[in-house]
Amino acid sequence: VQLQAYGGGLVQAGGSLRLSCAASGRTFSSYAMKYMGWFRQAPGKEREFVAAIIWSGGTTNYADSVKGRFTISRDNANNTVSLQMNSLKPEDTAVHYCAAARYNRYGLELRRTYDYWGQGTLVTVSS
Hints:
By secondary structure, the chain is an all-beta fold. It is built from no helices and eleven strands.
């Protein structure tokens, strides 16, 4: 399974960005990888949960810090998960990673639930 995250960049506070994560590989399918998530890691901090979605049904989950500002969605036909980020704040500055999991073993907010990770894309929000 390969995950390719893209869409990061530099934006002013209050602006928007849309991240996408393209999943591929012979072993990947939205049937096998039931859960997709976005995490982020700011300089000097631990990687933290941002949002997650279940391929089947589209149930979503968000960190409190992004609720009402970020929206996670999936495109089943193209095996792509997106993160629409609005009303961005300087504290949203971080490398953002997408991840895939076959099972929700420990909770979608926990990194150890996920089996595969993308390479990360940098989001920088200037004040």
